[in-house]
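We treat protein structure as text, and this decision shapes the records that our systems exchange. This encoding replaces a full spatial description with a residue-level series of whole-number codes. Below, we set out a record of this kind in full and without editing:
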Amino acid sequence: MSNQIVADIFSRMQVSPAEQTLIGLINKNGNVFGQNATIGRERMAQESGYTIGTCKKATKALEERHLLRVERKRLGPGRNAVNVYSLVRPWLRELSFHEAYIAKKRRELARQQEQKDTAHLASIHGRIPVIPRENKKEEKSAMGYLKPEEIPPCVDRGSPIWYLAQGLEPPRGEG
């Protein structure tokens, strides 16, 4: 799996020989997916055959091109821990730690906003809001029927058609 990641990076991206060596070194020292490689700059320079300055420049170039994620840790003023390196495949939209943190915060804010906007109305003053609804029968009777003034003059007032045009039941004859 890890060799496939390196081959994938080399086939898709143009990298310098120093960057290629660093990618292979990080892949070798990391886990199966090329993640969490803990390696110091001195050891990186020694194993790659480049100077420390060249390793720093190559690391920075890979990081700027989003091919490498670097987790830097500070122990105190002027004291740093060994960096943790992870290979990134940007065409798979793998996020950096910072991007993942921002995405998580955005999701949390969206969720909070959604909770404010929706079904939490019952918590307002301990009451459940009552929304008046019209009865379906009332909606049916009001829809599509005419008012007495709107009925055309050709329809006799009091005839069964006149009542039906208003949505009313015509009176039954005495029998």
The longest strand covers residues 68-71. Residues 132 and 138 are 13 Å apart (CA to CA). The chain has three domains: 2-94, 95-132, 136-165. The chain has a mean pLDDT of 78.
